[in-house]
Amino acid sequence: MGHAAAGAEIGVIGGSGFYSLLEDVHEIKVDTPYGPPSDSLFLAEVGGRRVAFLPRHGRRHTIPPHAINYRANVWAMGSLGVKAVISPCAAGSLQVAVKPGDFVVCDQFVDRTSGRPHTFYDGPIVTHLSSAEIYDPVLRDLAITTIRDHGIEVHERGTVVVIEGPRFSTRAESRWFSDAGWEVINMTQYPEAWLCRELGMAVVNISLITDYDAGVIEGTEAVDALTVLEVFQQNAARIRDVVLDLIGRFPGDLDALGARDALAPTRGDGHATSSEDIRLFETGL
Prior knowledge:
Elements: E1 10-14, E2 26-28, E3 41-46, E4 49-55, H1 70-79, E5 84-93, E6 103-104, E7 108-112, H2 137-149, E8 154-155, E9 159-163, H3 171-179, E10 184-186, H4 189-198, E11 202-212, H5 225-249, H6 275-283
Parallel strand pairs: 1-4, 1-5, 5-11, 6-8, 7-9, 9-10
Antiparallel strand pairs: 2-3, 3-4, 5-10, 6-11
């Protein structure tokens, strides 16, 4: 993958606020077989680690959730040698106990999107990768500890239901999701987190709760985009500080997380996926 010389080991897919105040940031453009990513990638050193930052919606937030080129974004990260991805996002709450301003370190997702290209494995090699444990447990534990150390209310696990957008849920949908016991609602975690796993990258999500979804608390105002933006901006410094601190706490050996190893028994023809298969797949040869 052609950008190894300007490589990184950790990726952050989020807003421009994560890198805008850092020193010595290098902007690079990355081409992918899936078209252009949301923006340039921005390389910097944080806590002694080489990090690639990518604004999920573009640096001026011009790409809506349903139109993001998720495969290009994740492929671009992989092309730089990234082995672990932090995927922070704004999200709504589906449970009264999960309050606006809280952080949730999700451990599961439910996909309610439609029509998004969501796999790198389109054949001819048939590949099935388990998504039972989509978010890396080691990185989740580190995220929980880091958030606590910053004095922020954190929920140690949660299921994020990912809707297509750009519309918010109806009250009926919101009650349906809430009654199912799910905690968080968002528009971008799928297929982003899944695609990271398909390329053998460990992934951890931090959901910053901006609002209660429409059907959670009867009689309250339905969620609107202005409220979401206001709460997120109020908490932007907190999520930025947590992410940058978390980077410095990542394990030295990211290969030990085992995300790449999970690709080994995924071939549908009964043969294990070898490291050579993966290399050829990643380079597009």
